[in-house]
Write a structure and sequence with these properties.
This protein has about 375 residues and is α+β, with helices and mostly antiparallel strands. The chain has 2 domains: about 5-85, no CATH class; about 110-375, Jelly Rolls. About 25% of the residues lie in helices and about 20% in strands. The chain has 9 helices and 13 strands. The strands form 2 sheets. An 8-stranded antiparallel sheet has the order 2-11-8-13-6-5-3-4. It has a 5-stranded mixed sheet with strand order 1-10-9-12-7, with no helix packed on it. Helix 1 (about 10-40) runs antiparallel to helix 2, helix 1 runs parallel beside helix 3 and helix 2 packs antiparallel against helix 3. The longest helix has 28 residues, at about 10-40. It is globular. The two termini are about 35 Å apart. The relative contact order is 0.16. This is Clavaminate synthase-like protein. InterPro entries: Cupin_8 (IPR041667), JmjC_dom (IPR003347). Pfam families: Cupin_8 (PF13621).
């Protein structure tokens, strides 16, 4: 069986799955209510509310809840079920705040990413949109960084979701490896595995919620961030082949939440990106898009028979075969001689926003438990 992203499945099948699930859950809720009303001895069967909530989460995760008003119906049902059965939160103990340690050494020879002293005007941004830069502390006024809605508090992340929720997570240190996989995991269990809650697992493999739109599933989080006006700039007009996101908003939001030490290999994205650090610190390494061959992406590695572990999927042709945060490999001379002199690096503090231009290679390493927001436009 081959797994595919919901965007590759025809709309009619995703809509059918969504409507069928909504019908089944509504019928189950109604039946449970009837049993409660008709029961005279007080021995009402325990409702299977956990599976109802899980099924509704699957509508968002697998099908993206297509159809007018369907996503809102899913949210209303989830919170209605949680409220009606007063299941509450298990309130697991929060893990103690880790000691803030020094960041690991940056890759060799990296040039610092410019940190701007003030935000540029829209016209100035359009002129400088071909190179990375940082707007320090740009997001410090987001609700996500304030006490009541602080994303660094596991208790808040749990309360926004409510009990019984599941999320799709990556399992394994590196998606280029054969032992990497994906699975659904309870939200509370995931927060334990990354160190935000006490507890954990005997499974030593790291878990990562990567490139996932948490706002569609936990929609109350959307009010905790602010979208910069820059995402509406005309930065792509000079690139004939560029196609911005085609959704109504004109931008795509994704989140990245994982444990300290989690890395993402250097890769390119098809959009411009404002990458905002909300929780913890993250090291970002960047290289210009003109150095594609010198970055040894998997497709070129395979075609030239250079020694490298072959990828499990051809979708890795936008990903390097090099471990950026390790010493430069001796058998990749073009990377050493051509890329390293032009590579850039920075450490994002909570509140910092990094602009990543179209096509720039970038690799990341979490220096703490880290939660980031990417805005593709």
């Amino acid at each position: 069986m081959t797994s595919v992203h919901h965007s590759q499945v025809r709309y009619c099948w995703r809509r059918l799955y969504t409507d069928a699930t909504l019908a089944l859950v509504c019928a189950a809720v109604y039946h449970a209510a009837q049993l409660r009303e008709e029961c005279t001895n007080g021995q009402v069967p325990e409702p299977d509310w956990g599976n109802w909530v899980r099924g509704l989460d699957m509508v968002i995760i697998i099908a993206s809840a297509p159809g007018e008003g369907r996503l809102e119906i899913v949210h209303d049902l989830i919170y209605g079920i949680q409220s009606a059965y007063d299941v509450g939160l298990s309130a697991p103990p929060v893990a103690p705040s880790p000691v803030r340690e020094d960041v690991l050494p940056a890759p060799a020879h990296a040039i610092p990413v410019p940190r701007l002293s003030k935000a540029p005007s829209m016209a100035a941004f359009e002129r400088m949109s071909s190179t990375p830069f940082i707007l320090p502390a740009w997001a410090r006024d987001w609700p996500a960084m304030k006490e009541k809605h602080d994303w660094s508090r596991a208790s808040y992340l749990l309360s926004v979701a409510g009990p019984g929720r599941v999320v799709p997570v990556e399992v394994g240190a590196d998606y280029r490896n054969d032992d990497w996989t994906q699975e659904l995991m309870e939200w509370e269990e995931f927060l334990k595995r990354i160190g935000m809650l006490e507890g954990g697992s005997d499974d030593p493999r790291p878990v990562y919620l990567a490139q996932y739109n948490m706002f569609r599933q936990f929609h109350k989080l959307r009010d905790d961030i602010q979208i910069p006006d820059y995402v509406y700039a005309n930065v792509g007009e000079a690139v004939p082949e560029y196609r911005p996101p085609s959704n109504e908003e004109g931008y795509l939001l994704n989140n990245w939440l994982g444990p300290k030490g989690m890395t993402s290999p250097a890769h390119t994205d098809p959009y411009y990106n404002f990458y905002t650090q909300v929780v913890g610190r993250k090291t970002i390494w960047l290289a210009p898009p003109t150095l594609r061959r010198e970055m040894y992406p998997f497709r070129l590695v395979l075609s030239s028979n250079l020694p490298s572990k072959p990828p499990s999927s051809t979708s890795l042709n936008n990903t390097t075969s090099i471990d950026i945060f390790s010493p430069p490999p001796a058998d990749k001379p073009l990377f050493r001689d051509k890329v390293l002199p032009h590579a850039m690096c920075c450490v994002l503090e909570p509140g910092d926003m990094l602009f990543i231009p179209l096509g720039w290679w970038h690799a990341t390493r979490a220096e703490d438990i880290s939660l980031s927001v990417s805005m593709w436009f």
